[in-house]
Amino acid sequence: MKVRAKKFLFVFALFFCAFVSLVGTWLWYLNHYVHQHCIKQTGLAFHLYAEDHNGQLPYSTNGFGNALLLLASTNYLMGTACICGPGDDGHIFKDALINNSVAPETKCSRVYIQGLNETNDPRICVLFDRSSCKGGDHFRSPWGHLVREVCLLDGSMQVIRDEDWPEFSRNQVELLVAAGFSRTNALYFYPAAK
């Protein structure tokens, strides 16, 4: 084999190994970090729950953390991953299920607006990520814009950039007030609207 052919094969082998390594790393990243906390599945679970409960979405006097637990404890969701935001291992909800205790709202990585039913305005955001992350859960990446995923009452999902969050929050406060929430209660869920 000529020296030129050997150099070509060597360079090709280097690029091939680098390509395989990048694809392997990307697949590992997808498997470990992306789409583990599917907010779309939670939207579907809300609809299934409402169908079985005269249009009412989950509600608990112990707060929205326990209202979300109703979806997992009554098998509308398989486990607690979908009611957790990106980066949350679900230990708060798992502990509450095991110990039959309260899942504190302040420790939940997703915020749920309880007290709604399917007849309310479908543009109302019923569940959203408390904190933003790059790309969100569905499009997570080590780069990109900081976003939050939100689930609307109609079951659809939207991705809201951090710079658009205050305006989104103000709109949601107005929708909640129109649905009968007090402005103080609506601002509890959306402090960025102040």
* Percentage beta strand: 5-15%
Give the overall shape, derived from the CA principal axes.
elongated
Tell me the structural class.
Answer: alpha+beta
Radius of gyration: 21 Å
Distance between the termini: 73 Å
How many helical elements? 6
> In this structure, how is the largest beta sheet organized?
5 strands, antiparallel
What's the SSE pattern? HHHHEEEEEHH
Total number of domains: 1
Low-pLDDT segments = 26-35
Molecular structure report:
The protein is α+β, with helices and mostly antiparallel strands and 194 residues long. It has one domain (36-193). The protein contains six helices and five strands, in the order H-H-H-H-E-E-E-E-E-H-H. It has helices at 3-33, 39-52, 64-73, 91-99, 165-178, 183-189, and strands at 110-112, 125-129, 133-134, 146-152, 157-161. Strands 1, 2, 3, 4 and 5 form a five-stranded antiparallel beta sheet that branches. A hairpin with a 4-residue loop joins strand 4 and strand 5 (157-161). Helix 5 (165-178) packs antiparallel against helix 6 (183-189). It starts with a helix and ends in a 5-residue tail after the last helix. Mean pLDDT is 85; it is low at 26-35.
Keywords summarizing the entry:
single chain, 194 residues, alpha+beta
Layout of secondary structure:
Elements: H1 3-33, H2 39-52, H3 64-73, H4 91-99, E1 110-112, E2 125-129, E3 133-134, E4 146-152, E5 157-161, H5 165-178, H6 183-189
Antiparallel strand pairs: 1-2, 2-4, 3-4, 4-5
Helix pairs in contact: 5-6
